[in-house]
Amino acid sequence: GEDVEQSLFLSVREGDSSVINCTYTDSSSTYLYWYKQEPGAGLQLLTYIFSNMDMKQDQRLTVLLNKKDKHLSLRIADTQTGDSAIYFCAETRRGGKLIFGQGTELSVKP
Amino acid sequence: NAGVTQTPKFQVLKTGQSMTLQCAQDMNHEYMSWYRQDPGMGLRLIHYSVGAGITDQGEVPNGYNVSRSTTEDFPLRLLSAAPSQTSVYFCASSRRLAENTGELFFGEGSRLTVL
Questions:
Q1: Tens digit of pLDDT per residue, chain A (110 long)?
Q2: Does B54 touch chain A (CB under 8 A)?
Q3: Cβ neighbours of B92 in A, within 8 Å
């Protein structure tokens, strides 16, 4: 299909790991992105991965990319209450368009 | 630098009215775009521009017009507002095309209600 797909909600306990999954559509996407949206604000880039990489680690964040299945995931280690937000994956399409998924609302319970 | 500035932040319209959402960026970005955010739908691309004088349609362009007469400004026009256009609108810009790792910088959003 044409959509970038994400599950809508995820709830974890503080200190646990969070894994947010995404299925994208365009196998020619050069970069794939994770953005974070805090309440009442616009989106901010969290991290990105180049399409020839399988994994990228950045402090508590780990991005895994499975190009065969067009599957992208974001793992947040030691999740904190401050990580509560909506997380969007995004892919680039021909012409430079950036297309977002529906967003996953992460709720972190103390 | 102010970044990406959107005005107004809130607007209520009646069906059939017209209005323009303003977007300005002071980062000399080539790429600018408009998204709408609706619950359960994520962000959907309305229109985008890769430079002054160039615009193109996104995923949901119907009912919206744009123009890009300068690098800094990218207004979004609703010619005849409909209740289905009730949404939060975000303007975003990038130093380069997104496919070249150009990070998108977002405005704070404009909440539009059409009665």
A1: 467 899 899 999 999 999 999 999 887 778 899 999 998 888 999 999 988 899 999 999 999 999 999 999 999 999 999 999 999 999 887 777 888 999 999 999 99
A2: no
A3: 42-43
Residue B113's pLDDT is what? 97
A24 touches chain B (CB under 8 A): no
Helix, strand, coil content of chain B in percent (nearest 5): 5, 50, 45
How distant is the Cα of B43 from the closest Cα of chain A, in angstroms? 6
Angle at A55 between CA A49 and CA A57, to 5 degrees: 85
Question: Hey, are the CB atoms on B90 and A42 less than 8 Å from each other?
Answer: yes
